[in-house]
Design brief:
By secondary structure, the protein is mainly β. It folds into two domains: 17-64, no CATH class; 67-146, OB fold (Dihydrolipoamide Acetyltransferase, E2P), CATH 2.40.50.840. It is built from two helices and eight strands. The strands form two sheets. Strands 6-5-4-7-8 form a five-stranded antiparallel sheet. The chain has a three-stranded antiparallel sheet with strand order 2-1-3. Strand 5 (91-98) and strand 6 (103-107) form a beta hairpin. Bound molecules: zinc ion.
Length: 146
């Protein structure tokens, strides 16, 4: 077993695309959140899998989501879960209910937590982590701007 070095413990874990999620990670590079739509029962799912979670159909197609949703729940993290996240605290973890139905865990862009609230509208952005990895995150939508 490989011994962890200090460098390993300060590296943030990165997602690894598999055959189910590859399209989603490619979509994020273009600023799109792709969700799987079942062509047999209409179910929309996130995260990606080989089968529909409702009817087990394999007829799943990716379609771009609107990127809009509401905050179903959230938590502001003040204590770093490890050395890799030491410089990030405080940060907000969001459970976003997407307009299309699925809920996804993500994070809030920025550190202004004063207007964070359940049911607040949010819009997806992406953070470029590397040439291969763009992570989805969300920002609060100011209703006065609409
Ligand atoms: Zn289905």
């Amino acid at each position: 077993m490989k011994q962890l070095t200090e460098e390993d413990t300060i590296q943030k874990p990165l997602p690894i695309a598999d055959s189910d999620s590859h399209a989603m990670w490619e979509g994020l590079k273009k600023g799109e959140l792709l969700l799987q739509h079942c062509e047999d029962c209409g179910h929309v799912q996130y995260y990606q899998q080989g089968l529909c979670r409702i009817c087990q159909s394999k007829k799943l197609v990716h379609r771009a989501a609107s990127g809009r949703g509401i905050i179903h729940s959230y938590s502001v993290v003040h204590r770093s879960p490890g050395p890799a996240f030491r410089d990030d605290v405080p940060y907000a973890v969001l459970l976003v209910e997407l307009e299309e139905g699925p809920r996804m865990i993500s994070s809030l862009l920025g550190k202004d937590f004063t207007h964070l609230a359940i049911d607040s509208p949010v819009a997806m952005k992406t953070m470029k982590i590397s040439e291969q990895v763009f992570l989805p995150c969300f920002e609060l939508v100011n209703l006065a701007d609409k």
